[in-house]
Each structure stands twice: as structure tokens, then as C-alpha cells.
Amino acid sequence: LTLHAELRPQPGTRFSVAGPVDVVNAAPGPIDRERIPVRRARAHIQASDEALQVEEIDASLVRGALRGRFEIAFARLDEWQARATFTGVDPATLHSRLRSYTLDGQAELTQAAGDMAITGRLRNRVGLPLQATLDLRASAARVRINTAQLTLGRGQATVAGEVRLTGSQATTLAGHVVELEPELLVKGIDARLTGAFNDDGVLAQQPAG
User: Fold this and answer.
1) 171, 175, 164, 176: which is closest to 200 by C-alpha?
2) Does the pLDDT of residue 65 top 60, yes or no?
3) Beta strand 155-164 pairing with 142-152
């Protein structure tokens, strides 16, 4: 990796620097081969003793591009926000077991007051139908899936519900799968899945008596 940054002090009495950052990766590749699947990433950074803002992120992947921003306030390190939009991304260049597609989509991650919210969607631009959406909330106490949907070829899958991570780890999950072929997404999984599930129980038994 080659890093070039031009961070200059900003006017004012408090510490603050800002400027462009440019990172070049001479040997990009999939993560399962211990590589980073990014050719080059550029951004504008503004940092002070109060916060860090990384804006105008522009990353050229092995195949495809990502743009976004990230910000965090140092007074509350457990509160931050990130947004990303990606175009033409080939998952096969991220991990060698993934099939090749041309994916467009967006994602947003927000951490505040101990809760993380993750929302996102993607779709395949050409060829086999592939579309996914996710709306999830997570904390140290629970994971709540508001909605998770996947269309893959002729197959479909949906799931929603909640898993408690403390106490009895109560679980309430429901969903269905129709003619889903994971092999179309991940190499080496030869199956066709159809069914429905409704799980309302606990993962950890509590002592009694």
C-alpha cells in the first residue's frame, strides 16, 4: 500500500486539520487470498479534537466502485455513521468462492446509544435476477431483523424476527424459502431449498429450583 496525505492545519484556536488522502494498492485481490480487493481509494479528511469526518470517499475496487462517507464524534466513540453507494461490484473479486455478478446498491450503518442500525439493498444489473434488502437493528442485548429478503434466480427467501443475546436468549424468527439455490451465489453448495420456519423458543435453558 502507498499512502499520500496532505493534511493542513485549519484556522482557529483549536486543533483541526483537513485535506485529501490517497491510498494506492499495487496488488489487489480477494480477501480469502489475504489481499484487499481495492485498487485505489481517495477521500477528504477533516479531523479535530472533537470529531473525525471522512467525506467524498471514492474507491476503485478490482471490479466496480464505491462512494461514501464516515463520521464519528470522539466524545461518544460508540456513536458513528457511515453511508456507501456501490456500482458494478463483482462479488467474485471480493472472495473467490462467490459467483460473478454486476451489483449496484447502497448501505447505511448508524451506531447510537448502544444500538446499531443497518439498512441496505443491492441488485444485479445484468443476467440472473439477484436482489436483496436488509433492515436490521443490533445491540448487546438483542438482534432484531425487521426484514431480510433475497431473490436469486427463481428462488426467494425472507426472514424477520428477533434473537435475544442475554438471559434465556429468547428467539422469535419466521420466514420462508422457495426454490433457493445457494450454488448460484456461493460455489460448492449444491442444494435447492424450499420450506417455511417459525421459531419461537429459547437458545439457553435457565436453571430452575
Assistant:
1) 171
2) yes
3) antiparallel
